Every structure is written in C-alpha cells, then in structure tokens.
Amino acid sequence: MASKKKLHAGPGASPPPVADDLEYRVTREKATETPFSGKLLYNKAAGTYACVACGNPLFSSQTKYDSGSGWPSFWLPLAEGKVKTSADSGHNMLRIEVSCADCGAHLGHVFDDGPRPSGKRFCINSAALNFAPREES
Ligand code: FE
Fold first, then answer.
1. Is residue 40 part of a domain?
2. Which residue, of 12, 78, 92, 136, has the greatest Cβ tally within 10 A?
3. From the CA atom positions of the chain, what is the Rg in Å?
4. Which residues line ion ligand 1, judged by CB < 5 Å?
5. How far is the C-alpha of 63 from the C-alpha of 77, rounded, in Å?
C-alpha cells in the first residue's frame, strides 16, 4: 500500500494535503513522471489546471497544446506570477525549472521551443496538477 506523505509542513499551514507517492516525488523531490503516462496528457476539456499541492490555479486549457513531448504542455501560465522559474542543473542538463509561486511545489520545466505568441513550452507533470472542468453556463 502506498504511503501517504505530507506536501506541506510549514508553520501555520492548514491541515496538510496528502498525495500519492508519485505526486510527492514530483512536487517535492523534482521527479519526472514517465512520458506519455500522465493522467492529463490527452485531456482536452475546457477548464483550469491547479497546483496539486496547494490549489493555486496555474494554467488554462486555452493555452494547453500537444507538444509531442509526452507531458502536458502549455504556452503560457494562467497569469503573471503564478509560477516561478529557476535554473536547474540536475541530470547533467541546464534547464529552467518551473515551480508553484505560492507553495514552491516542483511542476516541470520550461523550454524555448513553444508555439507563438510566447514561444515557450511549459512542460508540466500531470502528477503536479489537478484539473477542474469549467462549468457550462
Ligand atoms: Fe502550489
């Protein structure tokens, strides 16, 4: 049976969310889910993708596209300041890490081979995201 671990442990944190092992390894240990394995890779529904750890809304279905990389890909975050970027020299590569600006959860990486207009590819692990479908009005 998979063990449940805390994603949040800071002082003043509300009841800490728990996650399965994959969510923990991705968001806290910067693991990468196996390509073409993620639950949200082929999701084309309209809605919002939020941080799995804290619920911060991060990406809209409107900027999701099929990059062919094997991970959910977006060409823009939902709004400025939603995600943080930082240099990541792990695995003998120099990449730009993307993390949640609110809680610091690791999300994925951003590359400069995305579509116009941004030219960016936010390559994000499904395990770092929760999808909320948009309500039909
Ligand atoms: Fe977060």
1. yes
2. 78
3. 14
4. 51, 53-54, 56, 100, 102-103, 105
5. 8
Residue range 44-62, pLDDT digits in tens: 999 999 999 999 999 999 9
Positions marked active-site: 123
Alpha carbon distance 124, 109 (integer Å): 7
Separation between Cα atoms, residue 128 and residue 100, nearest integer Å: 9
Residue 96 is part of which domain span?
17-133
The CATH number that applies at residue 92 is 2.170.150.20
C-alpha of residue 13 to centroid of ligand 1, in Å? 13
93 with 9: CB under 8 angstroms? no
Q: How many domains does the chain have?
A: 1
